Each structure stands twice: as C-alpha cells, then as structure tokens.
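Reopening this ticket.

The earlier resolution said the output was attached, but the attachment link was broken on my side. Pasting everything inline this time so it's all in one place.
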Amino acid sequence: MGWHVALIVSQDIKEALERTGATGVKFTEVTGPRPIAQEVQERNQRLLELRAQTDATRTVFWRTLGRLDEEAIIPMVVGGTWPARRQVWRVIHRPGGRTLLVTDGLSDFFVDRVEPSVGFGLELALETDEPLQDVSKSWPLLLLERVADEVAEHERVRESVEEGFMSMEVSGGGMPEPLVTKEDRVGVLLGMESSTLPRNFALQGGAVRLVIVKALLPAELGYLLEHGKKGRDELLRRFGQDGHAHLSRAWRSPAV
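Inline output:
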C-alpha cells in the first residue's frame, strides 16, 4: 500500500483482474519498443563497421610486438572520456620474460562522429620485466589505467604528450612501496624512445603515436622536478647506461 509499482502482464491477466473487480489497478497498453528509424539503423551499422576495422588493424599491429595474450581477462569499461566510450587494455608477451601492457582505445574513432579517425591519436604502453602473477591485478596495469585516465580527461595533458616528453604524478594507492612518494603519489615519464618498440603505427584514419610510460622512483621524480629539462635529459642518459631504458620496475636502485 502506498507504493506505485509497474508490472507487465498478459491480456488474459488483465481481463481476469477486471472480472474479479480488483481495485487500485490501472492498465496501460504496452505497444513494445518503437521501431528504429532507418537513419539510426544505418548509423549504428556504420559504427559497428568502423569498430571492426579499427580493432582488426590495431590487433595486427599489437601482434607485431610479441604474443598477444587472448586469455588475459581485463574487464572492458564502458563509458568515460575515451573516444568511443570504451576502455580496453591488452597484454603482449615479449622476449626475455617481458610483459607489455597497452591501452587499446585511445585511438578509437569518436563515437559521436560516424567517420574514420584516430581519436586522440595515441596509445599508451608500459613494459616491465618483473614477473606478474595476475596481470589484471598488477601494479603496472593499475598505473597504466591511472595515466590513461589523465590523458583521456585533460586536453592539456594530450597536448604536452604530443610536444614530446611529459612527467606527471598519479595516486600511489595500491602501488609498490618503492615507487610511492611521501605524498602518496607515483611519478611517471611519458614519451621515451625505445630501440625495441616503434614510435608510430597506422590506422585507417591516420598515424597513431605509441607513447611509452615509465615509472619513476621518488628520487628520480624529485631530480626531474628540481632540474627540469636538463634533469630529464640526464635521467634519460642514465637510464640508457644502466640498462633500465624504458622498462618500468619497482624493485631497482634509483638512477640518481
């Protein structure tokens, strides 16, 4: 009593209730879903075709980087600020026990435009040679997700990435202790070059940049913030010397 509830019943039930003289019931005919307009059907079909083309081409590229893991289950997130409003990550196994994690959707077409495009024109990549028992619960994936959120949500961040290098800080929650600053943050450097990963790849809508994400230790982040461009160049030089290069590792000695 006092609650308004909508129930869908058959015509037989409606007539039976009316015969019993039931009170407090109002019947409204349910005519079913409205037919989808032809132009809407055509738009939806075009979006499905664009998605299939984009996914197929990008998958071919991912497979050039190593063994694409078809069994790793990383739930796709629907919604948000990614171009096609779907957030996807892929796992690629590479020589030497390395695991490459990549975003798979920042270069999607914009869902509100029924035309080929490369979205934000980039995808993020983070590679590590540390063993990962469960990739879906690993710190590298968590870090990549947080960096991707910043890139997708802020045009200023994307512009800085396009210009070359960029450093940023994200939440340190759930991250390995050696990576976390006193302020509970984790620093990363975006835009490093790699001798084993290409800088760009092509989709139907144009070129896409593969942006490498490298996790920084607190001492390295502090050095970078203190010395600016010179500090960044020196870090890059030292990373190359000690063999860290673009790999992200939590358990290592700082380069500075």
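Reporter confirms the inline version is readable. The chain has five helices and ten strands. The mean pLDDT is 91.
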